[in-house]
Specification:
mainly alpha, 4 helices, elongated
């Protein structure tokens, strides 16, 4: 099972922050995952943020500059969370 699938299952069971999920992942609560698979998970999250922001922005008529600002803000937040938990991106 990929980390993203594990993440979705964990969210379905309880609302937890990305940081809490990553801490549990690091502790091995969801099994063992390679550094590459953890990096891939971060990239998936970043892509999802970007895609969702573009779709929602188009639906609501949000200016493109604002959509990109929101994407950048959220991606930076994701990256800082990964750095706090794992010490790397």
């Amino acid at each position: 099972m990929e980390i993203f699938d594990v993440y979705l299952e964990a969210l379905a069971e309880e609302m937890l922050s990305l940081e809490e999920f990553l801490l549990r992942l690091k502790e091995g609560r969801y099994g063992e995952f390679t550094e590459d698979s953890i990096r891939e998970f971060r990239e998936i999250l970043e892509r999802n943020v970007s895609e969702s922001a573009h779709v929602k922005g188009a639906e609501l008529g949000v200016p493109e500059e604002e959509v990109y600002r929101v994407i950048e803000e959220n991606v930076l937040d994701i990256r800082s969370t990964f750095e706090r938990v794992f010490g790397w991106l």
